[in-house]
Every structure is written in C-alpha cells, then in structure tokens.
Amino acid sequence: MKILIAAAGSYGDVAPYTGLGARLREAGHTVALAADASYAQLVRTAGLEFRALPADPRREQGGAPGGKRELMRRAAAFVRELGPGVADAAAQGADLLLLSATTAPLGRSVAEAMDIPSVDLPLQPNAPTGDFPPVVAGTRSLGRWGNRAAGRLSLRVVDRLYADGVRDVRARLGLPPVSAGAVRRRRAGDARPVLHGVSPALVPRPADWRPGLELVGNWWPYTAPDAVLPPVLEDFLAAGPPPVFVGFGSMTAGARDGGAPGRLTANIVAALRRAKVRGVIQAGWAGLAGPESGDDILTVGEVPHSLLFPRTAAVVHHAGAGTTAAGLRAGVPAVPVPVTADQPFWAARLAAVGAGTAPVPFRALSEDETAGATDHLADAIARAVREPSYREHAAGIARRMDAEDGAGEVLKVVEHWG
Questions:
Q1: What number of other Cβ atoms are within 10 A of residue 279's Cβ?
Q2: 417 — phi, psi (to 5°)?
Q3: Which runs of consecutive H residues, i.e. helices, occur in 32-172?
Q4: Model's pTM, two decimal places?
Q5: Model confidence over 191-210: pLDDT tens digits?
Q6: For 4, how many CA atoms within 13 A lie in the half-sphere containing its CB?
C-alpha cells in the first residue's frame, strides 16, 4: 500500500512520524512523509520518501504586534499556504492518508477528493471530554460539563482558523463548499478510529470518549541503529556525573515577552551552577549558547533524545509533547518550563504523575537576570536531581511505556484498510 503521512509544524510535530513511517515501511508498505523542506534529511534518513510542504512554521515564531489576534492571523495564513501543499503531495500517489492534527482539517478534503481513506493521528488528546479542559486552554478544570463545553468551543476555534484554507483546497479540488457545522456533525457520527500518539500511562483514556478514540502510546522519532552521540558530547558525559539537560525545542526566546537568547542562557547557566550540577544546553530555535569557558556546561545542537536522556540526571524543557514523552521514556525526572499552547497541560501531567517538579515560569527566565528567577529554577533542578521520588515515579512510567506499541496499533488500522 502507498501511504502518505502529512505533518506540519515544529520538530516535535514532525519527528515522531518518521519512526512511525519506518515501522510501516518495515511491514512492507511504501511510505512517504510530507513536511516542511527543513525536515527532508530527517525523513530520508528514516528510509522514507520526502514530499515537500510549502509552509514554514518558523515564520510563525517570534514576537508580533497585535497579540493573540495577530498570532491567529498569521496561523490562518500558514494554513492557507499549507492546503495546496497537502493536495500536491497526495497527488503524487497515495492509497491512504495519515494526518497529523495540523494537516487533518485540510487532508480530509484531499482524501474525499481522491476517494481514499484517511486516519487522524494527533499527538495531543484533543477530543472534548469532561475529564480535563482543552489541552491548549490552561490547566484549571471547569468541572465535567464546563470541560466538555470548553472542548467543543476549542474545536470551533480550530474551525475558524482553518475555514479559509479548507474552502480554498476544496475549490481547488472541485469539491462543493461545506460549512464547519456540517463537518462537525459528520465527524460526530463518524465511527472511524482516531489514534492519539499519547501514552495512557501519562494521560488515562477519558471514559466519555466514543469507541474508536484511542490513546495508543507514543510513536518515536526514528533513530538509526548505528546512531551515536557526537564525540565531544561523549567526552563530556564521561568526564563527570550525569548532567542536567536543558532545551526548549522550537520555542524562540522572548517570543511573547521581549526576552532574548542571551538573557535566557544567562539565567539557565546561573541556575545550573547554583544547583551544583553539570549541564548540557541544546541550542534549539532559541539559539541558546552556554559559556565559552568552564568545563561544567556544554552546548549541543540536535541530538537524539533517545540516546542522551537516559544518561542525564534530569531534563529541563518546555514541556512539548515529544520532549515530555522522551524524558519519561528514559525514566528521567523533569523540570517543566512551559511557554505556550499545550505545554502547561503536559507540565501539569508530569507533576500529577510525580515525575516532574511544579512548573517554572518561562517569562521570568527570559527577562533580565534576577536572583528570583535563577533561584526558582536552581531549586527545582536540585529537587529533581536529589529527591529520589521523582526518578522513581519517572521509572515507573517508563516501564509502562515500554510495554506499549503505538506504532503497532497504527499498523493494525493500516492493514485493515489494505
């Protein structure tokens, strides 16, 4: 079967699908992954065909006047640019579309036009439930009725965001217009599976979800069997006790509050040293760079979390879905520093399962260096490293995750369509 996976966004929005695609390829399927051009090598390294999508998520990063309204405008423009790319990628040949949350509202119309099946594979538990509020709406529960109502409202916001893009792609493909309400009603009665790449060890499956909405476990970024860490990193790891990893992935320093990479790095370095631990700082989209002098802190680029995290004492991160799962998979305590979107949700889940400290505010760390900001982070790092309960709880989650086979569950559904 020819399978097209379509994923758009940051590294954490795309990389998990490389491992999933590799698993499907090993099962005998022909697999292509459509993503932004910056991920071409990542996709090809996994043995998958790469198909380019035109929209660059980095253009949506950074500060912009107008606050949330401007961010929504830019996101809608990203979606309108993305739609034709998804259609063009599918036109190159596909018997089945596997869609990330970012591409699904567009990809479903593409699948309709091509008369082929599609399966949604989101990385967040985004269906409304009474168990918790929408993952992008903060962590305060509104009660079961309120949580469900907020979940439905969140889906309507997504509908508005994608409205122009869906209209454009349907017109391009010769499909009749369809209202967002009609799409919602159609999907409400849809019995097709939606497989969430989320571990039920971290988020229990909501009891009020319909059959077919499943949390199947994570699928992981592809790592080559012969992959190794860079020699300079190996030397650093061998030179002393396990370090603390610090990285904020696709978050750009000061995107919301006027901060800068230098300020954020200064606070991170000060906190690591006050906690009396060694550190590995990942540059990421924020362009973080540790001190040029001293042998206690090393700055690295992109390295496989699956190889590095098991050798760390703790991970300090932005609580993106992928990094959160990778730290738990390694059985390592977390210090979450959420910035936006679904990150407060994952930070709260880490604390709820006992594998992470209470969240540290990103805003304070990205502003001018202050004793309060560095003390807060230093205290959280020290507790994560030295209080055994955090590692014990993380190790317990890791054992449960090790028994899951998220990619295998997707393969079962794929072979049903085959």
A1: 24
A2: -75, -25
A3: 40-45, 67-91, 104-114, 143-172
A4: 0.91
A5: 789 999 999 999 999 999 99
A6: 30
